[in-house]
Amino acid sequence: MAPLSLQTNIIFLCGDFAHVFHQVLTRAFKTHKIPVTIEQFSILAILFYQNGINQKEIGTLLGRDKTTITRIISNMVKNKVIHRVSDKRDSRGKLIYLTGKGEAIQKRAVRVSGKLYQKAIKNIHEKDLTQGITLIAKMIKNIQVPGKN
Q1: Which of 44, 58, 71, 100 could form a disulfide with 106 if both were Cys (CB 3.0 to 4.6 A apart)?
Q2: pTM > 0.90
Q3: Per-residue pLDDT for the chain (149 aa), expressed as one digit of tens each?
Q4: Which helix (H) or strand (E) holds 127?
């Protein structure tokens, strides 16, 4: 079934939602004086669930290339938001952890983004939300390149 317009094209709408969400979240971070970019927040969000993972895993979870992740992490290290620790299992690897400053920023950023998330799903029934999540996950799986992510 081909979409009849951009307003009925799920791919366009997913991209548009992500763009608008990022714009509004960026403004909210500025309003609340939270000193992170959306890309940095993505890493903080991952560390919220898995503090102490390696840079490669972060890149895989975000679908970002090594150069981009290295640049973002280096800036976050420079700003003392995160730090690298040698991996005891593999001395060549470094694990990424939040600093105290990073934890404080992360908590504030997660609280602000959580409020925006709640606003975005307001008046959407749980069943509809679950179906939407399932649908988008299937779409992602359908187009993923084998062996990637």
Answers
A1: 44
A2: no
A3: 776 778 778 889 999 999 999 999 999 999 999 999 999 999 999 998 899 999 989 999 998 998 999 999 999 999 999 999 988 887 777 899 999 999 999 999 999 999 999 999 999 999 999 999 999 999 989 988 766 55
A4: helix 126-143
